[in-house]
Amino acid sequence: MTEMRMALAQLLEKGSDADLLREMVGFVAQRLVDLDVEGICGAEHGQRSAERSNWRNGYRDRSRETRTGTVPLKIPKLRRGSYFPGFLEPRRAAEKALAAVVQEAYIQGVCTRSVDDLVKALGMTGISRSQVSRLCEEIDGRVNLFLERPLEGDWPFLWIDATYVKVRQAGRIVSVAVIIAVAVNTEGRREVVGMAVGPPEAETFWTDFLRSLARRGLRGVKLVISDAREGLKAAIAKVFKATWQRCRVHFLRNALAYANKGQRQMVFALINTIFAQETAEAARNQWRVVTDQLRERFPKLAAMMQGAEHDVLAFMDFPKEHRTKIHSTNTIERLNGEIKRRGDVIGIFPNEAAIVRLVGALLLEQNDQYAIQKRYMSLESLAPMSDHPSFRLSAIPALARTRQPAESPTSR
Questions:
Q1: What are 226-281's pLDDT values in tens digits?
Q2: How far is 26 from 340, CA to CA, in rounded Å?
Q3: Where do the domains of the chain lie?
Q4: How far is CA 148 from CA 169, 196, 391, in A?
Q5: What is the pTM of this model?
Q6: How many CB atoms lie within 10 A of CB 224?
């Protein structure tokens, strides 16, 4: 106890020293480690006790990266078994990926001044190529296993959306699309089923991406929900032979662009009368009425609506309980926002592999969250959607058959 007070007093004497906070963090962390080991051994360091159950056997030098800087620690080794402090467990996959991307940019000499400031803000005083290699290897292995895993069962609904990030290619900074695919299976569970990086305007890109999902086992797709992407609609018909639902939210944004600021509220209210209809037939009739009403003042908007009717109202042909979830890509908007936020932190990715590493780690964590959440859609509502329905016998008739009435004395 006296040694601990002396060490603490020495730290406090430094006053306004810039390293005070870092050394305080190191002091507290080391003390927590020592207390933890004392509990495992049943005695303090150097203390003789009949209750002692283990002994220290030297130390391993370890450093911990914190926001206050690099903190050196001495991790005790034990004669019996191994020890590693629980509060120093490895960081979450997405945090590791974020650090790995920044570190890789730093090592390759492609980071800008803002990224260099970020490295310092994360408390990293330096990083070696071997450290980056080990960290990236661990993350890439997990991400690749996740993104290439086989998919089982039927997946009636598939959402696809894209967000854009910047990456260095051949000495230039270019913007590339990160494509995310989320699907719901007939058990009502959501899963992240795939991602890709590439040009979203090319039909060949979409065809290759959808075929990669099909090869992994994605089947039974009835509806694909996405924004209006060049070539995607044709690829959906070619690979899955499924219906395409144009995202209603993106459509409304496009429609409001044809009206000036003072007229947008009126146009918005008028178009929303279409989506308030109860049946597909009523919605289509109202669509034509609204289109005619807008034609005189907004001819370009009316022309756009005339060509978009079938794609925007495709969701109306599906069960009513599903419509609020399948009319737009809102189910993955939050995920897109998180990717964008992390991308803004990085600024410019050093290469496409770094994009897959960071985004893949985020998707892996999101998929784990989906697994512990309640069903996104009910089993009963999804049962008719499966191409391979599972027939379940009713429990009551089966129970009745097992309980035959006892033979009465009069029947003998």
A1: 998 878 988 999 999 999 999 999 999 999 999 999 999 999 999 999 999 999 99
A2: 34
A3: 2-88, 91-246+348-386, 248-327
A4: 25, 12, 30
A5: 0.69
A6: 25
